[in-house]
């Protein structure tokens, strides 16, 4: 298993332990519970290219943040920009509290 896949499994476990419902994009139901984390949510990066945020977090049916999965030993210096790009890339059609979503690297 790749280190990034291991990181995602650990993030899934931690999100679920905190009460988040973790879903794949294909089975998206943002109203499945008070907190829903959707894996591999598609966005458009500022350069116009497609991308996918590792997790898009919903609370009360509205997007509230993004999580970018990296292996535990990955240097986070360059990841902040990636998470920010994805946070900016959320379509205005997605229910949200604000369009610039806060990002987190895990």
Notes on the protein architecture:
This protein is α/β, with parallel strands linked by helices. It has one domain (3-105). The chain contains two helices and five strands, in the order αββββαβ. The protein has a five-stranded mixed sheet with strand order 1-2-3-4-5, sandwiched between helices. Strand 2 and strand 3 form a beta hairpin. The model has no long low-confidence stretch (mean pLDDT 82).
Mind sketching the topology for me?
Elements: H1 3-17, E1 21-24, E2 35-44, E3 50-59, E4 62-68, H2 79-88, E5 103-105
Parallel strand pairs: 1-2, 4-5
Antiparallel strand pairs: 2-3, 3-4
Supply the key terms.
single chain; 106 residues; alpha/beta; five-stranded mixed sheet; 2 helices
Query: Outline, from the CA principal axes?
Result: globular
For the report, how would you describe the main beta sheet? 5 strands, mixed
As a whole number of angstroms, the C-alpha radius of gyration is 13 Å
Q: How many distinct domains?
A: 1
Average pLDDT, all residues:
82
Structural class label: alpha/beta
Classify the beta-strand content into a percent band: 25-35%
């Amino acid at each position: 298993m790749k280190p990034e896949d291991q990181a995602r499994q650990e993030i899934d476990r931690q999100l679920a332990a905190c009460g988040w419902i973790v879903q794949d994009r294909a089975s998206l139901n943002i109203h499945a519970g008070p907190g829903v984390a959707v894996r591999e949510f598609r966005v458009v990066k500022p350069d116009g290219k497609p991308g996918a945020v590792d997790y898009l977090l919903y609370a009360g049916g509205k997007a509230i943040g993004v999580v970018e999965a990296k292996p535990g030993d990955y240097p986070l210096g360059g990841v902040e920009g990636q998470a920010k790009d994805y946070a900016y890339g959320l379509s205005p059609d997605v229910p949200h509290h604000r369009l610039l979503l806060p990002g987190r690297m895990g």
